[in-house]
């Protein structure tokens, strides 16, 4: 995926979950942050950020903050809409290769299953249902990435729906899109989401495929890259500077 008009700026502060102030040349601009997660380990004053220029009469801001250059080394994409977009691109190009995934006949985004809306439904060439629920991952410390960045109830519900779909004969995937290119391992943040960790443990036992893929990330573009090892039992601890807050 390629953004239309990226401009590099310097992050100043984030007064709430929805907006941030950035220095763009000689202008202080208000930007829409495309992720309501906490992100405190990356939103550090002075860090370089990527702003997508999207002026419209209906918008309150002209810019979307879509990526942060962490430690002045690695781009981390924080756009919460991006994971579904790049998975859709991969499905359309028949380039989404997940463990055990058969050839697909067709697919449809945002499909209702029971009382939930799952990100993707597909039909295999043999007529079997296949479901994919996508989650974006931006929280990282010392090469380990973790989900979620903030408490979530919906994710637990989605995992239980995937378990139910397996019991009805479907193939199901919980796909974590790691929005960076340097993660060594992925886990669930047990302290923040113990119910989700328990649900995923049950899902793996039931036959749900739990997969993590990282991305090629620049300020202007993002694409799926390669698998990241998923270890449900791996410990995760946020950076010390964040824990003290």
From TrEMBL:
Residues 12-78 form the SfsA N-terminal OB domain. Residues 81-220 form the Sugar fermentation stimulation protein C-terminal domain. One of its GO terms (molecular function) is DNA binding. InterPro entries: SfsA (IPR005224), SfsA_C (IPR040452), SfsA_N (IPR041465). Pfam families: SfsA, SfsA_N. Coiled coil: none annotated. Belongs to the SfsA family. This is Sugar fermentation stimulation protein homolog. It comes from Secundilactobacillus folii.
């Amino acid at each position: 995926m390629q953004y239309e008009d990226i401009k590099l700026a310097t992050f100043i502060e984030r007064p709430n979950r929805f907006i941030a102030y950035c220095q763009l040349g000689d202008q202080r601009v208000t930007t829409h942050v495309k992720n309501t997660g906490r992100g405190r380990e990356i939103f550090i004053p002075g860090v370089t950020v990527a702003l997508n220029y999207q002026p419209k009469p209906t918008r309150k801001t002209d810019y979307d903050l879509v990526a942060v250059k962490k430690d002045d080394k690695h781009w981390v994409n924080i756009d919460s809409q991006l994971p579904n977009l790049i998975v859709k691109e991969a499905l359309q190009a028949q380039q989404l290769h997940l463990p055990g995934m058969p050839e697909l006949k067709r697919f449809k985004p945002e499909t209702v299953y029971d009382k939930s809306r799952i990100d993707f439904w597909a039909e295999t060439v043999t007529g079997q249902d296949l479901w994919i629920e996508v989650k974006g991952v931006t929280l990282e410390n010392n090469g380990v990435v973790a989900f979620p960045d903030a408490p979530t109830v919906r994710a637990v519900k989605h995992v239980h729906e995937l378990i139910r779909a397996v019991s009805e004969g479907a193939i199901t995937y919980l796909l974590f899109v790691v929005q960076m290119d340097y993660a060594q391992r992925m886990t669930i943040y047990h302290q923040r989401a113990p119910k989700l960790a328990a649900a995923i443990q049950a899902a793996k036992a039931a036959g749900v495929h739990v997969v993590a893929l990282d991305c090629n990330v620049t300020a202007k573009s993002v694409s799926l890259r390669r698998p990241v090892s998923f270890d449900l039992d791996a410990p995760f601890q946020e950076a010390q500077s964040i824990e003290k807050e």
